[in-house]
Queue: 2 jobs
Job 1
Amino acid sequence: MPKLGLLSYFVSNKTTRVFLLRPDQPKPLAFDTHVAPQELQACVRRMLIDFHGIEDSNWTEHDEADLITEALALDPRVNGFKRTQRISRERLKRPEFFYQFSYWESLSERLLPADLRAEVADCDLLCISPHGPLHSLPLSSLRWSKQEYLIQRFGICDINSAGVLRYCQAKNRARPSRHRPASCMIAAVAATEDPDPESFEEDGDTLAMVFRERDPRSKVTRLVGARPVDGHQPASKDEIRKAMGEHDVVHFACHGVFGMRGKRGDPLNSGLLVSDGTSKPSVDDARHLSPEEMAPHCLTAREVFNLRLTADLVTLRACSSGRAQVRLGDELMGLVRSFLYAGAPSLLLSLWDVDKVSSQRLLNEWLILAWPSPPARLGNCCC
Amino acid sequence: MKRLLAECEAKARAGLELCRRAGFTAPEYDLLSGVGASLLLRKRPQQARAAYEEALVLAERLGSVSKQQISFELLGLICLDMGALAPARDYCKRALELFERCRDGLTAEEHQIAFAQQAASLYGNLIAICIEQQEIAAGLEFAEEAKSRALSGLLGTSHLGRPPLPDALARREAELLERVGDIVIEWRQTTEKQAAARDSLWNQWIKLRQELEKVWDQIGRIPGCAEYVELRRGTPPDLDALRASLV
């Protein structure tokens, strides 16, 4: 039996506390990390700037400009102009665009204090329940040691809360005990702006291969591109909605948008850009058009609420698919919420906009390494 | 600043006398709260506590749940600052109980979320008290109770595997849950401006919820169904349930 530990963080207005509960220990433990919420919020802001660049509109509001300046001053300090454009593979080659997350890694010693490390050192799997700004930070990439990140040392399961974990487990328990994923749906579509649509539309090859290698009778449904080709159905909203509820694994390879733009946005307008049955979506349109205008090309969080899924795992290789607006009652508003409600107990997502090459590589390696034992049927994991 | 606060307090006290003589309870509560706030700002916690305790009695007499909740919360905060942990915890817990009672009557997810924001500091205080009192398990329970309550409530109405139940009971629960689900969908399609439609949905929701509670009471009495009912009700996990979820 793997050894488990629950790390439950709570960010108050003064400090961040972490509770440790191990089923093999009689009592839980508590640790004060002495990390103030403002430090975490600055990290969240800086990480968004590093991944997404500074939006022009942010500079026009005075308090926003102050907060950006504060975030840019975190180690390594950078000038604002170096972060005015989005991260891209080409830019990374230039020294002025060199990215380092030392501001985040420097919190490792405090967010994982020495006493806590000693208590979890022999665990195999850590179930982490973040709170507040920690939901938007990659706890898995905290340093366990100079050589290892937390994710390299432990299996990590990221949960909304222990309460939500129980629902995910209940959904898993409701399946037959010998249930193994036997079917998968792959929806893959590039955008009109993509020069290499195959980087999306050939996605899922590994997943299909893994399924068929394990059992040639596995059902693999591929919804690819904008319109029907050679008997293949397109990755259109209608086809996706029809097929999603009938598969054990659901995989998307497409662009994603986070609906919370500016202060007036709605995180439930976040969505996955798909085909309308005849044409590809446009990333540029998604940035400028209204949700109503984008409706034929966007499967929104609001729409996912009305689906019924029986999938064991949903993987979204789409930008910002795991990004959420964290409200004060610690409610995460975005795609995660709607997929959990629709019935997905485990999710693999991205907290930011991601590079299509590296995300594909990461996902393929994860599938080869992890399948078929995980996804650990413990709960929902957000990477 | 201190002089101004003292002046405010004197005027509020004069107003208090008038209210008492006239029997105006609601304004008396407001003025007492003002006196309490002024004393707190002047760093006189003992006297502030006395003022808020008096205000609490008035809130109870008025039957105002929100006024009682605020009074309990402030009393908890004052006691915490004074280092009186046991009464601080008691006051905070009572504020939380009232908060829960109000929250349970909210249909819309967004209202539940907005409401939850008010309890955020309360949970922070309770956790700090529990840690001071070396009651770590209770602290952990509060930490998890503070998270994603509206989502848990929402998941409670979603599709969950039902344990073996008598057919009639299972059918009745399924039917009620479906109707609750329809109301949630309809509510999402309305706006703040459609007050009449929302009122009607709210009334339907309250009735359905009451019927569901009765059904869940019946289900809860069937051996092995307690956890299922907890999930349906969105009850936050206690230490045993947390431990069980890790095994």
Job 2
Amino acid sequence: MVRFVVRRLLAMIGVLFAVSVIVFVVFMVLPKQNPAQTLAGKNATPVLVKSIEEEWGFNDSLVVQYGTMMKKIFTGELTSYKPRIPVDEQIKEGIPATFSLTIGAAIIWLFFGLLLGYLSAIRAGGWLDRILTGVSIAGISIPVFLLAPVLLYFLTYKYEIFPNAQYVDFTEDPWEWARHLILPWFTLALLSIGFYSRVLRSNMLDVMNEDYVRTARAKGLSERQVMTRHVLRNSLIPVITLFGLDFGATIAGTAIITEVLYSLDGVGLYAAEAVRKFELPPIMGVAIYGAFFVVFVNALVDIAYAYLDPRVRLGESSSE
Amino acid sequence: MSSAPLLSVSDLRVGFATEDGIVQAVDGVSFDLRPGEVLAIVGESGSGKSVTAQTIIGLTRANNARIEGAVTLDGKDLTSASDAEMRKLRGDRVAMIFQDPMTSFNPVYRIGDQIVEAIRTHRPDTSKGAGKARVVELFEAVGIPNAAGRVDDYPHEFSGGMRQRAMIAMALALEPEVLIADEPTTALDVTIQAQILDLLEELNREHNLATILITHDLGVVAEVADRVLVMYAGKVVEEGTLDEIFYDPQHPYTWGLLGSLTRIDRPRPHRLPQIAGSPPSLLDLPEGCPFRPRCPHEFSKCSEYPGLEARSEAPDHRDRCWLNPEQKREKRQVEGQIGLEAPSGANKA
């Protein structure tokens, strides 16, 4: 198991290196425009462009340029130029809000998704299953940009049950933190709740037909034991993979829409602002940040996967 | 073999409601099983042999299943037993092993743990350590080498033959009285098959275990069975002792099964003999004898449904065929051995 973890983490570094090269090529090499011009932003003075050109060493070879870019990213020298604000500080400032939003939403969608999926599966074909199927499909079908305004209109403006979002730091006031996040959490989670319950349901129905489930029954296990120990456990393996991809992608991108709609001061909002103002350095920074979390979460998922499914631990002796 | 039956099945009928109508998978099956006896149930896929076996331990209970008749174990009726009562019985008094050892263990748990789970379900006060010690003991009994080292292995680390041994170990864990083996050797190599059969026979002798062996392989039957039940389209078409079935078969379907057996002590046939056609759909059974469309010896009487009766001299050797014993003795001879000749109208079914 230890060897598996180490190997997986080494692979993760390889992927991140590849991502950084792609970022470099896409932003610095491919565009026809002088990259210094792009970095400086719209309506930049020639003096600024000149100084950026020197700072980034755009007359050097590509390898040296790549080295310069990586050095800037790792030492926190990557800044936006109008005004001059270090990108890493902005990202760090946004992280509490983004993580509160995404982790909270992930817990909610996993909990409800798995609960609804499990109930649907063990009552497959019954009225409960049919209702839950309808609810799931509805959840999957409602787009975030419609759901958020509707919730805000009714629950915030009309009936004032929830405060107008905006982020309150957890350390300041945990109660207000949660109260401000409930709507964004459910907005972000709703689609996944529907989706995960469908996926778990169909996985469970497949697994129920497996020979080992019949074996479990033949052993004399109760229906609940058969369902939880044998059916659910094996059905969770594909769900975990899905969760790894989704959670990484949510931190790195999907959360942007929710953050913008609820004006939560997170990394997503920062990225959206950067795109709107056409500022390249923050976009580069956020791209690297996003890549890091997608890859990191996936590495964690692979490790969880190996724990759940012993067949994945390839090239290992069975004794840990 | 005159002791009272341990397990008795009488007029068992199992039907499943489907969109296309009721599928009568098992239609009036009866037999007795005594301690230490090996009863083989043979037949093609869909003949109802597995459903019969699974119904005995209540695995076919479902909303769309209709189960009639009686299954009594030691005087207690199992068809009317509650689900909880059946659960207590399963794995404890009646154990079952399945066809495919590759898929019959849960891939994510250690094999030892899966057997301990079975033990602790029925004996909750067994400690995990004691359970594991018992598994090692069982592994040794079924001939798994390095038993102590292998209890913590996962199913994918076992070979097919070893997994079937582990499956048998699991079935024996609580010293059941009845063992139901559903095609236990079908998924295995021929050499491994022989080993598993030897093991089953040995255990059957040592523990006086009553065994129901379900198979389509008459070679397997010849090796271990005491009595044989031949099933076709949900019904028993012939039953008798091993010798009666092999040396004096009464039903053309049994002749066909015997004829399609390749034997190493006979000259190799030009082409493997087979029974023409395929088993009938249970939704659309022919009138009268269900084997009629595939039978070359069909005559006018066959449109009437034959009862299961002793038509030969032996009182316990019963079959469902209208032909009289003399006709049977003559007609079952094909090229000097028992077999079923090809029907005249090529492929009738």
